[in-house]
Amino acid sequence: MTRLVRYAPLGLLAAFAVAPAVARPDDEPSAPKTPVFTKDSPRLAAARVQSQNNLKQIGLAFHNYHDTMGTFPGGFYDASGKKVGLSWRVAVLPYLEQVELYKQFKLDEPWDSENNKKLIAKMPKQYAPPGVDTKGYTFYRSFSGMGTILPPPIPGKAGTPAQGVKLTSITDGTSNTFMCVEAGEAVIWTKPDELAYDEKKPVPKLGGIFETGFNAAFCDGSVRFFKPDIDEKTLRGLITANGGEVIKIP
Predict the structure, then answer these.
(1) What is the domain count for the chain?
(2) pLDDT at residue 28 greater than cutoff 90
(3) b/e code 191-213 from CB counts within 10 Å (16+ = b)
(4) What is the pLDDT of residues 104-130, one digit of tens each?
(5) Does 22 reside within a domain?
(6) Does residue 81 come out as left (phi exceeding 0), alpha (psi in the -120 to 50 range) or beta?
């Protein structure tokens, strides 16, 4: 596994204003349109590089969390102790230099509780498409389900961390397993809504930020860009952590 070192967050592109989203009946903002950047966007190349930097910072946060907790982040259990109420994106905030924001969350409450819902608007820029205000929505999501890095959670105690996999459990190799990708659809960043994977069902849609493909962070911390026509067999192999597939990354 590639050894990662701590580094200061990389600079972000200056944000620019976008048209306000139309409010939903429940006061949630509307999801951003996709793709955010078309193949003709003048800022396409710079945006691709910046999104890769975002994913590198997220990957480093995953590894620093693992160094502390012994597993990858799975979020936090809600009051019932049976479900995850807050995403891993909240769990890694201290490792993205967002300690003060982290302290404002009530970890035993779900993402849409009265307290936690107020924090949606404070989404760190590392979770947003480069230079775009998505009103609390993020495209950076992990895969969940049997065989992925976020297996179904076992019951736990309210407000305590749910566990992802350990690095030693990724038998397919950390350089052959997705950690976080640019999903085809955005979700509220605090919501524990990942890309549910089932080998018997279609692969979740990817590539909501760029029309030309998608960036993906691997479990070794590396980041690569994939074109939309990636072979489905290869894609499924990269999603699973211990499927035993022989993978040739294009």
Answers:
(1) 1
(2) no
(3) bbbbbebeeeeeebebbbbbbbb
(4) 999 999 999 999 999 999 999 999 999
(5) no
(6) left
